[in-house]
Structure formats: C-alpha cells, structure tokens
Amino acid sequence: MSTAPVYLDYAATTPVDARVAARMAECLTSAGVFGNPASTHAYGREARACVEEARARVAALIGARANDMVFTSGATEANNLAILGYARGARRLSERRPQAGGRGAAVISARTEHKAVLDPCHQLEREGFEVSYLSPGTSGRIEAGQLAAALHPGTLLVSLMHANNETGAIADVAAFGALCRAQGVALHVDAAQSAGKLSIDVEAMQIDLLSFTAHKLYGPKGIGALYVRQSQRALLQPLMYGGGHERGLRSGTLPVHQIAGFGLACELAHADRASEAVRLAQLRARLWQGIADLPGVLMNSPAEHHLPGILNVAFAGIEGESLLFGLPELAVSSGSACNSDSDEPSYVLQALGRDRESAQSSMRFSFGRGTRIEDIDTAVAAVRREVLRLHGLSGRAAIESLPVSGEAGSREGGTWIKVNLRIRGQTIEQASINAYGCPFTLKVCEWLGGQLQGRTLDAAAGEALAGGPRAWALATGTPVERLTRLLVIEDALQSALRNAGLGAYNGP
Predict the structure, then answer these.
(1) 356 Cβ partners below 8 Å, 6+ apart?
(2) Sheet strand arrangement including 404-410
(3) Mean pLDDT of the chain
(4) Which of 11, 162, 233, 400 allows an S-S link to 194, with CB 3.0 to 4.6 Å?
(5) Domain 273-394: which topology?
(6) Nearest alpha carbon to residue 362 among 389, 387, 388
C-alpha cells in the first residue's frame, strides 16, 4: 500500500477543516438551510440570516464592517472587481465631472504581484490606462519610498499585495495606506496569502479595497470576498450583471453553503492565528536548518518580514523539475514550469534578480495545520538525498576527471549535457554523463551511459547512435514531445566520439 506524500504546499491551497465541512453540509439538503437568500419566504429568510452571520465573521477577520464585504467566487474575481471595477469607475467619474477634480488614469502595481492582479492591470493598459510596475529589492519587498516616488497627480489606484505567494515577503501595507490616503489615491491589497495568517485591520491600515479567499485558510474553493470602503463603493463598477445581488456589485445567487463555510473558516483562523504563527515559524526554521549546508543552497525568502509558513529555496546547478521528480514522498511547488516547448522560470524570482538557472532550481515549501515535526524531518532527508544525487549528475560535485568528453547545450537554455568517456585502446572502459535538464533528459542520460560502457568506439557510434533520440525515447518511455531535449544529448555524444578519435564523425 503506497503512502501519501507529505503535503507541503499549503500556499497553493488548504484542505477544508472538518468543522467547516460539517457547517457546509448543514446548508445543502432539505434538512438544513438550503433556501435562496433572495427569496422572501421562510426558507429564503433563514438562508439570508445564515449569509449575514457569515458575512460578519468574514468581516471580523480583517477589522471591517459586515456591510462593506462583497462575496465573490474567490480572490481572482475579487482582484478583478477591485482593479477593473474601480479604475473604470474612477475614470468615468473624472470624464463626467472634471470640475470635481477627478484624477487621471494611472495605476501603480508591482512586477511581483500574482497573475490575478497583473492580468487585470494589463487589461487596463489595453483600455488606455497608464500602469507602472514597481520592482522589489533583493529582499522581495516593495518599500514605501518606492511608492511615494511613483505616486503623481494622475494616479487613481494602487494595487500591492500584503504577502507574496512565492517568497512569503510581507509588505508594509500600513505605510502604503498612509501614503495613498494622504494623496487621495485608492489602495487595493491582495491579501489572499495573508488573511488568517497575519493581523489585518483595514481601518488602521487605511485600505480601501482588499481581496481574499476561503481556500487559503481551510475553507472551500469557489468563494472569496472583496472589502470595499464605504466611501469608495460608488466608484466601483460591477463586472457581472443579472439581478443586482451584493448591493449591485456582484450579481448571482449566493452559494449559502460556501459562504457559511467561509465564515466559520475565518472565525477559526482568527482564533488560532497567533499560536499557529509561532508553530509554523518553528517548522520553517527546522527545515532551513536541515538543508542550509547543502551545496549551492540560496534562500529566496527574505530573512525578515516573511510569512511564518513559506520557505522558498534555490538549489544552484539543479533543474527544478528534476528535483521535484525525485521527491515522490513530498508535495511541493517548483520554481519552473517544464513543458514540451519551454522551461519558464518564476517571473517573481527573476524580478528579485535571480538568474534563469537559480529561478528554475527553486522550490517553495509551505506549511499548515496538518504539518508536523516528523513531516519536516522527512522533507529534510528527502531533499538532502536528491540534491546530492543531482549534484553528482550535474558535475557540480567533485567527479573523477575523464580523458575524453563532449559537451552541448547550456544551463541557461534549460538543458546541458557533458558526455565523459575513459578510453582504453578502442574500448570505452568507463562512461558517465553529467546532465542538467528535466527528469526525462536525466533518465535517458543514465540509460545511455549504461549502453556505452564496454563498447568499442565504432560500436558506440554504430549502435548507440543508430536510432538516435527517437529510439532512445522509445527505449526509456520518454514522451515524443521531449525529443528536442534529447537532441542535446546526441550533440554531446557526437562531440565526445569525435574527440575520442573518430575524426570528422557526424553520426551514422
């Protein structure tokens, strides 16, 4: 019986708390609160009371009034409603009432925001808005001074996250709020990662719009909320029409069971936040202490001002997907997105100044209520084992020098191969292949090294290369769409064979 991997990806999503699931179940069948909150009969009134109770719980998590909360399908929709809805509404007012001192059409955000913020900002650019993107320092934080320098009379909206989803870096949102309020600029905060983990008071922090979601704090997927400061409500244009629900800002029948679960999840998170933060910080420190001495390790998360439950680490010289592939006992996130066409590293890590190789070699470990000390110890042992193994393959660890070699590709390009051959007479006495690439690339390299060992140079040229990458893929079960990566292996092997004395050898 296989053992489930240790879940260390709580920043991606959290399991629904059993108490939350039970509360949701009470709102699904005829024995519970199943009515439509918009209905005027007893079932509708009961459902509406349930929704409003949950709304108050959600609002309490961020120090808001219940009437200022708008339910959405999640943080993505909340971000879109805040950014697109406010920017369009503010510009429209400006065009209609220029005498009222309306602002221009400029928006400020950051290069390290989540796509749910960046993509709406790009849409505003297509609509003629001027959008500027701040770049963080090496700590990953946007500083208040950067925002102060970027604000100008035409700015109508600033959208900056509270805590970064990849590195855990925490921004000084209160300082942002003071700057924006002083200049009459609306501040939107994406708090998807921080709600329920950090103390948030929208009034004290002078936040105008704030987005968060249930599934990051042990609630259900598909439900989130947008806080809208009362004075800004009139400027917010809806994105959805059809019934005027949520005071006209978000039409659609309210999912009572999800909202009830969201409310309880917020209440539970609020009660446990302080003690859980201490526990998660201890787990994070234990993991880092266990892997900090590995070769090429670099912490991407800031040393200070970080979420207690996120640790982002780069392993120089190791391709991220290969490391992930070699850790079946762990469920974590990699810093690269390997597919058949490209290896695109994290844009967040690149914005911090990490080169492509470092960004691709990065992993995010995130912890939650279910994480225990023994899980951290399992992670430490697994990461140490795999990092040291892959360093041997990549040639970063000390290896015996071999007389003949051939090299192709580059780490920057995502695939680098070095074929090493020890020749005795015309026989390949020893063959090893150093490789940096995706798991399929490493698998073929290990297989091919075994095929070369003990063969004569002519046999190696005639047999090992005879079928080329397509035959290697068939022999190792490599998907045909990865063939372009195997061409780099072929180039390196041909180079080694030429250097071994086959002259102008160009393949079979």
Answers:
(1) 345, 350, 412
(2) 404-410, 415-424, 427-436
(3) 88
(4) 162
(5) Aspartate Aminotransferase, domain 1 (3.90.1150)
(6) 387
1 pLDDT higher than 50: no
Angle, alpha carbons 444-448-449 (nearest 5°): 120
- Map tokens 């780099």 to a residue: 488
Q: How high is the pLDDT of residue 103?
A: 59
Q: How many angstroms separate the Cα of 306 from the Cα of each of 26, 164, 195, 258, 280?
A: 37, 9, 14, 30, 12
pLDDT tier at 185, thresholds 50, 70, 90? very high
Whole-structure pTM over 0.85, yes or no? no
Its sign, for the CA torsion 15, 21, 24, 28, is positive
Averaged pLDDT for residues 458-479: 78
Residue appearing with tokens 């999503």: 13
404-502 CATH fold = Sufe protein. Chain: A (3.90.1010)
% of the chain surpassing 90 pLDDT: 59
Q: Say which residue, 340 or 501, is predicted with more confidence.
A: 501
Among all residues, which ones are annotated catalytic? Answer: 338
| Helices within 336-396 (DSSP H only) | 347-351, 356-360, 373-394
Residues in the chain: 508
The owner of tokens 């260390």 is: 8
- Helix (H) or strand (E) segment spanning residue 70: strand 69-72
Q: Which of 440, 370, 277, 276 is nearest to 5 (CA)?
A: 370
SS3 assignment, position 322: helix
CB 63 within 8 A of CB 201: yes
Sign of CA dihedral 32, 34, 37, 38: negative
**Residue 469 confidence (pLDDT):** 84
Parse the chain into domains and list their residue ranges: 273-394, 404-502
**Strand order across the beta sheet in which 186-190 lies:** 69-72, 224-228, 209-213, 186-190, 155-159, 106-110, 130-134
